[in-house]
Write a structure and sequence with these properties.
Blueprint lengths: L1 H31 E5 L13 E6 L31 E5 L6 E8 L4 E5 L2 E4 L2 E2 L2 E10 L22 E10 L5 E6 L12 E2 L4 E5 L21 E2 L3 E11 L18 E2 L2
Antiparallel strand pairs: 1-2, 2-14, 3-4, 3-14, 4-12, 5-6, 5-11, 6-7, 8-9, 9-10, 12-13, 14-15
GO molecular function, one term: serine-type endopeptidase activity
Keywords: Hydrolase, Membrane, Protease, Transmembrane, Transmembrane helix
Pfam families: Peptidase_S26 (PF10502)
């Protein structure tokens, strides 16, 4: 009888341990990190469809959309630090409520414009240096089976899809890759945008395939994003799969595991 009680007691303790471990993991996730799958090609080639990463929710302090439970004020941030130009940021779309990931280009007070596909910040051209081409197979990608857009279109299924690649250097010295698809796309020539106080301007690295701050919220764009919608900064790809499911091990991109996001 004592042996039976001891056995049952051991099972109870095991269950308690598992429950506590899950609770701690849940609190850790809620407080500090949020998992995020890359669903679209708007940030290629920095981020690919099927990349899995954790968003650092503490990078800028807590906001309305990164704050766990009800411990943070509705207005303002706790332990606030300022986002930096060039950060890759996850944020909540102000209109449709979806989570987006883009690169922070414009800070409060900045004037942003795109002319002939080249970014200008505060009246100064942001230099771009040619960096070859980005190539991938023209085939369905990710769970949704999206086909990539190609600069060398039309491309048959199984063919090589290419885009011109450039290294852009932002005013604070951050260097990152950008891709080009169209010679004169809709977002390649814009008006001058002045970023209001408390707002930010975002763009995708795959410049001709990103609905970002160049587009107003009325047409599904990001527009000028209030700071309260920031969730956190993306620092590193943890895992990556090119297939419809992460269980398809033959589609894993081993060279992207734990890859730093630049």
């Amino acid at each position: 009888m004592a042996s039976k009680d001891k056995s049952e007691g051991g099972i109870v303790e095991t269950i308690k341990t598992v429950v506590w471990a899950l609770l701690i993991a849940g609190v850790f996730r809620t407080l500090f990190f949020q998992p995020f799958w890359i669903p679209s090609e708007s940030m290629k080639d920095t981020l690919l469809i099927g990349d899995f990463l954790f968003v650092n929710k503490m990078a800028y302090g807590y906001s309305r959309y990164s704050c766990p439970f009800a411990i943070c004020p509705i207005e303002g941030r706790l332990f606030a630090s300022e986002p930096e130009r060039g950060d890759v940021v996850v944020f909540r779309h102000p209109v449709n409520g979806s989570d987006f990931i883009k690169r922070l280009i414009g800070l409060p007070g900045d004037q942003i414009q795109v002319k002939n596909g080249v970014l200008w910040i505060n009246g100064q051209e942001v230099p771009q240096e040619p960096a070859g081409t980005f190539q991938e197979v023209y085939e369905p990608q990710g769970p949704m089976g999206n086909l990539p857009r190609c600069e060398n279109a039309p491309v048959g299924q199984g063919g090589i899809c290419t885009r011109s690649r450039f290294i852009e250097t932002l005013p604070n010295g951050v260097k990152h890759a950008v891709l080009n698809i169209d010679a004169n796309g809709y977002g390649d020539n814009t008006d001058v945008f002045t970023v209001p106080p408390g707002h930010y301007f975002f763009m995708g690295d795959n410049r001709d395939n990103s609905t970002d701050s160049r587009y107003s919220q009325t047409v599904g764009g990001v527009g000028m994003l209030p700071a309260e919608y920031l969730i956190g900064r993306a620092d590193r790809v943890i895992f990556s799969s090119a297939g419809k499911s992460m269980l398809f091990f033959w589609t894993w991109r081993a060279d992207r595991f734990f890859k730093a996001i630049e």
